[in-house]
Write a structure and sequence with these properties.
The chain has 216 residues and is an alpha/beta fold. It has a single domain, classed as Aldolase class I (TIM Barrel, Alpha-Beta Barrel), CATH 3.20.20. It has 11 helices and 8 strands. The longest helix has 16 residues, at 196-211. The chain is globular and about 80 Å long. The structure holds SN-glycerol-3-phosphate (G3P).
Amino acid sequence: MKFFIDTANLDQIRKYRDMHLVDGVTTNPSLAAKENTDFRSLIKTICDLVQAPVSAEVVSTRADEMFAEARELAAISPHVVVKLPTIPEGIKALARCVEAGIPTNMTLVFQPLQALIVAKIGATYVSPFLGRLDDIGQDSMDVLSVIREIYDNYDFQTKILAASLRHPLHVVQAARLGADVATLPPTVFDKLLDHPLTTIGLERFLADWGKMRPEA
Ligand code: G3P
């Protein structure tokens, strides 16, 4: 499973890239707004930094305008993946992007039928928002598992990008169910390698090592 980082913050991207954990980046308008800088320049910098897929989302809501934005975003770098909302106008824009050879990430997906539709049209990635489903008391992993089943039934090539992950268990569950990618916010990255028994174990090893008195 690939790990993408769900942030537009350059320091965070550098931090986890230096640990060899970043296979790509996802952003959305909320994350980009936090950086308070020119969006297109930021996306270009991120692409140059990671040299891997970087999702950049359109903010128009009409298909024609979405497609125009998609073309502008795709021109920034060959690493750009255009994120489109899974609404009827977004589906129309998706079809045009597919025809134009622009990689896409269909976002705000909450049910298997949405995932089936975008795969039929040829999306590159589908992003089910798992944490937001759990937030409203729906088992997100059921949704992920049905999407995986449908995609396998028809050998769809659309990659399942598990998004809106809130904790390490989400990552494990998504991996068990065969998500192709998990996009993790920095807070979840921090927790991935944090196990108290590892910390305590290392402290003990080093303390014992410090007590060693080599024979003269
Ligand atoms: O990648 C989608 C993600 O940014 C949404 O996460 O935590 O806002 O539901 P969240």
